Amino acid sequence: MRKSAPKKLKLTPGKKMRLNVDSNGGAQEVDETKSLLGDIGRLEDENRKLRSELKSTRRGSTLFSLLSDTIHNQPPFSTFTPYSSIIQKKGKVKESAMLVLSDSHGDQEILGKRVQNLEEYNFDIACLRAERIVDTTVSHLIDNMKNYKFERLYIAGLGDYVNGDIHNATEHSKWRNSLKNSMGMGELIAMMITDLSRYFPEIVFCSVSGNHGRRSFKKDYRGAQNNWDYLVAMHAATRLRNLVESGRCKIVVPDSWSMGLSVYDWNFVLNHGDDVRSWNSIPHYGIERKTRRLGAIGAVQGTTPNYFLYGHFHTASTTQHTTGEVILNGSWAATDEYALNSLGAYSEPFQWLLGVHPNYGVTWRMPIKLRKGTLAEEAKKKSRYAITLFEDHEQAEGDIVFRERNDKKIYL
Ligand SMILES: [Fe+2]
After folding, report:
1. CA-CA distance, 284 to 287, in Å (whole number)?
2. Alpha-helix runs per DSSP H in 197-336
3. Where would you tag: which of 1, 90, 212, 410 has the fewest CB atoms within 10 A of its CB?
4. Residue 46 CA, ligand 1 centroid: distance in Å
């Protein structure tokens, strides 16, 4: 077949034209402006699509960091009266101090009438007792032990900060909402650490979860962070970000139910203690067995555990063992409906404060008594700690109400 001669084209003046030459040598006049406009349209469509994809990706992948930023930036720090200034001490004996923090069950509401008026406990009382812990720690380490210099304050968090949602506990809690209960308790711990940071150059807060905050029917041994105590610790960590970034606070929240902590060369094991078996409600033999076994496991790894810190039993005690000591922490409430009726249990609320010497290990132990005066006297007091986090946001939301559009009210 004879090829036809290429078509001769005349370029139109005034228009931006170009020639497209096909494989047969044929040429076609193309309006370049039109073609570019088409390209722009396509690119705009593509851009819109990519923007929408980016938006949804950002929404998903950065949810946690957005949450973190919101917690950090939005709400004003809850009300508390700060101490005046950092006191620089020149002590002769160098030690570190360790505050054992556990079993606050801060969101729990215990009514006196249900527990023979042996206890009255709610979040306001928890704030007062938190204040007692901070004030006693400061007055004991700074005012009483004038000959000591505490290089570091360790806070060994052993869980059960909140009552969680097992046994229908949320129904009898401060905010009736486990998220709020946990964030509120995290806020309280952040305020305690902020207060303490005025007196100690370095604070290390380690936290393991307890049994009350679990979010599975039975304990999930792979789910230490699937626990309300994890949210408490992470909320505190987020609120303390400035202190952490300044290098004055370190926060460790492991993905395990236990953790090892070396203070100088002394090895501490932190665990909530709910896995210790009891006989006739007495954990002594279970503790002895567990301690012995963990000691043997430590030997395999070439590490000797010296101090075992447990919460859970709500009774402060210490027991000597072969290579150190078992220290059981108390709770923030003396008893509750279950403890009193089912176990007949009542223990004065205590939390341990310990001194750790580089050569001698734990040298002194002070149980901080959390209740001061009678229950009636305590109920009249107002703590310098108050959680305003949620109300702040709820009030802010009230400002954005309605906007008129086409005579219709729409809610924003
Ligand atoms: Fe507990």
Report:
1. 5
2. 228-239, 241-245, 284-301
3. 1
4. 56
Q: Cβ–Cβ contacts within 10 Å for residue 384, how many?
A: 16
Domain count, the chain: 1
* CB-based contact 19:9 (threshold 8 Å): yes
On whether the CB atoms of residues 310 and 101 are closer than 8 A, the answer is: no
Question: Does some domain include residue 53?
Answer: no
| CB-based neighbours (< 5 A) of ligand 1, an ion | 103, 160
Q: Which domain holds residue 267?
A: 93-393
Q: Say how many Å lie between the CA of residue 368 and the centre of ligand 1.
A: 17
310/352 Cα distance (integer angstroms): 11
Buried-state track 102-133, b at ≥16 Cβ within 10 A, e below 16: bbbbbbbbbeeebbeebbbbbbbbbbbbbbbb
Task: Count the alpha carbons within 13 Å of 291 in the hemisphere toward its beta carbon.
Answer: 22
CATH number of the domain enclosing 179: 3.60.21.10
Per-residue pLDDT of the chain (412 residues; tens, 9 = 90+): 444 554 544 544 445 555 555 555 555 665 777 778 888 888 888 888 888 888 766 665 555 566 677 666 655 566 666 555 556 556 689 999 999 999 999 999 999 999 999 999 999 999 999 999 999 999 999 999 989 999 999 999 999 999 998 888 888 889 999 999 999 999 999 999 999 999 999 999 999 999 999 998 899 999 999 999 999 999 999 999 999 999 999 999 999 999 999 999 999 999 999 998 877 677 888 888 888 888 888 878 888 999 999 999 999 999 998 889 999 999 999 999 999 988 889 999 999 999 999 999 999 999 999 998 899 999 999 999 988 888 777 765 555 444 455 555 444 3
Are the CB atoms for 83 and 195 separated by under 8 Å?
yes
- CA 143–ligand 1 middle distance (angstroms): 31
What is the strand order of the sheet 249-252 is part of?
A: 249-252, 203-207, 148-157, 93-101, 350-357, 361-369
Residue 161 Cα to ligand 1 middle (Å) = 8
Q: Is residue 46 part of a domain?
A: no
**How many whole angstroms from 337 Cα to the centroid of ligand 1?**
13
Is 45 contained in some domain?
Answer: no
Closest C-alpha to 384, from 195, 196, 131, 106: 131
Q: pTM for the complete prediction?
A: 0.76
